[in-house]
Design goal:
3-stranded antiparallel beta sheet, 48% helix
């Protein structure tokens, strides 16, 4: 097999989306529900189907062939938040992407929804999102909602052979929404599996997977290495959890070892099938289904199967009703897709954008990317208080911040309840070719977009911002593959901020006060408050170290 990193990352991304789309059809469904959704009691490939949204009184909506769930949605959100210098903009991800995602989320778990709602509050930052309701607590949130979205950190890594180059970003990404060690350890384990595949061009065996345990035990040190997490997050976590940080991760390390023991025994049995894996790992057990560690280990084990027929393996996973079909399939797709050598047999929704996104991450890994996604000013951003007001009106055009103007590409989906409250659901499509199912008002009732939610660029008027080339959007039922290059929504940022470079300049200047002041203003404006704190901490530590050497 020939390895061309760009095409392999594209394949990994597309197979991850394909597995998600296929498993989304059967997610948490029994046979009766599957028949209602598709008209059949098994799935053999991607089809158009129907699903109720918006709770008990919500409408039944049509989902196009290849529609994907929150797994792929949040993977794309993660990718947009990685800039051209491979800097993960945790502020944009946590305060803009995740709260806005809640307005178009499909198939999201309780923990992720509560986390998104909490992050929409002005007082909550990514490092203190300790939500607590009758349904769920942050410190108990150990699902796979983090593990299924962290692949972009590995795809964009300049040195995937060195886990320390991407693991802190994986940890920070995960801690935005999930607090239990299972969620973070599952995300780290899956990231290590994917980096192994990229470096070695094969699926890691159980023995190699055991070696990843070192990094699981090191998660607390990664957490303590970040100034925000060490000063704000750790005390709150240890106050609300049942154990100290290191003890919590030692427990989850032991849990992963036990799961790998089961996988090792399963591989040695005569019944080497996905059905037997589901039984041995107890993947359909409601009490543990969807656990971050269980899903990550289960996805690795499933990747050993059907080595010559990935489409058949995806179908097997999707048809194991009662399991977390979409998340297992999407993680298998990311792993096996990299070495598959071909794209999935059917296009997924928004395939053009998915390809562009993967190509961009590959360019980042080579220091060849020139574009960042445009976000509004994080310091003035306000998450809408009503779910109906994420989509508004700007210059007589429906507008969905931070994604810009959107076009309607489906009929309106209504129920008696939505009619009573004068809203409906509808598929819309952005200029950069991502589709969103939004809950919205009719055009004449859309509220004007708050100016704080619009793109701001130095030297650019608001009228010029967001004026991008449109790509004709077909109806939701007739979505052809678009071959045009998609750069809409991204802007050239050759002079973007690099914290390492700025701190090096400050140290080399012998801590010139004027220069440090300029840096702080620049970092605050372009990267946000948390990065300004990080810059200050690095400079402070350097000053203390130099003074000690002089003493």
């Amino acid at each position: 097999m020939t390895i061309d990193n760009e095409s392999n990352i594209v394949n990994s991304s597309l197979w991850a989306a394909y597995g998600d789309a296929l498993g989304f059809i059967t997610e948490l469904a029994d046979k009766n529900m599957l028949v209602k959704r598709t008209g059949k009691n098994t799935v053999t490939g991607l089809v158009e189907w129907q699903r109720k949204v918006g709770g008990m009184y919500g409408p039944i909506v049509s989902l196009p062939q290849g529609a994907y769930s929150d797994d792929t949605q949040l993977r794309l959100s993660t990718a947009r938040s990685i800039n051209l210098n491979n800097y993960f903009d945790i502020n944009a991800f946590s305060k803009i992407e995740i709260p806005v995602w809640s307005s178009y989320a499909l198939g999201a778990g309780i923990g992720s929804k509560l986390a998104a709602e909490s992050l929409g509050k002005k007082s909550i930052a990514w490092y203190n999102n300790f939500y607590q309701t009758k349904k769920s607590r942050y410190v108990d949130s150990g699902g796979n909602g983090a593990a299924m979205r962290i692949q972009p950190h590995v795809w964009a890594s300049i040195t995937p052979k060195q886990p320390e180059s991407f693991l802190l970003d994986v940890v920070k990404n995960s801690l935005c929404t999930h607090g239990h060690p299972r969620a973070i350890a599952g995300a780290v384990f899956h990231a290590l599996c994917l980096s192994y595949v990229i470096v070695e061009k094969e699926i890691p065996c159980v023995r190699e997977a055991r070696s990843f345990s070192k990094w699981i035990k090191d998660i607390p040190s990664y957490i303590r290495s970040d100034i925000n997490l060490s000063t704000a997050w750790v005390p709150m976590y240890e106050a609300q959890s049942d154990s100290f940080l290191e003890e919590s991760y030692d427990n989850v390390y032991q849990e992963i070892q036990q799961l790998l023991n089961i996988v090792e025994k399963w591989k040695q049995t005569g019944d080497f099938s996905y059905t037997s894996l589901v039984n041995d790992l107890d993947l359909s057990n409601k009490a543990i289904r969807g656990s971050g560690t269980l899903t990550a280990v289960g996805a690795l084990a499933a990747s050993y199967l059907n080595r010559e027929d990935l489409p058949a393996l995806m179908v097997d996973i999707a048809n194991q009703l009662g399991t977390d079909t979409d998340s297992i399939a999407t993680m298998v797709g990311a792993l096996r897709g990299y070495i598959q050598g071909s794209q999935p047999p059917q296009n997924v929704q928004d395939q053009t954008y998915l390809i562009y996104d993967a190509q961009r991450l590959n360019r980042i890994s080579k220091n060849e990317e020139k574009n960042n996604f445009r976000y509004p000013d994080i310091n003035t951003w306000k998450t809408p208080t009503s779910s109906l007001d994420f989509l508004g009106m700007q210059d007589n055009t429906p507008f969905l911040p931070p994604f810009g103007s959107v076009d309607s590409i489906s009929d309106e989906f209504r129920s008696n309840s939505t009619d009573s409250y004068n809203y409906f659901y509808q598929w819309v499509r952005s200029d950069f070719n991502q589709s969103f199912l939004v809950k919205r008002r009719k055009d004449s009732s859309l509220k004007p977009i708050d100016s704080a939610l619009l793109f701001e660029e130095v030297g650019t008027s608001k009228q010029e911002v967001g004026q991008n080339k449109k790509i004709d959007a077909p109806s939701i039922s007739h979505r052809p593959h678009l071959d045009s290059q998609v750069e809409i929504g991204f802007h050239n940022n050759g002079d973007s901020v690099d914290l390492d470079e700025l701190t090096s300049q400050a140290i080399q200047s012998n801590f010139n006060e004027a220069l440090i002041g300029q840096h702080l203003i620049k970092v605050s404006r372009e990267l946000g408050i948390n990065s300004a704190v990080a810059y200050s901490a690095i400079i402070s530590k350097a000053i203390v170290s130099r003074d000690k050497r002089k003493a």
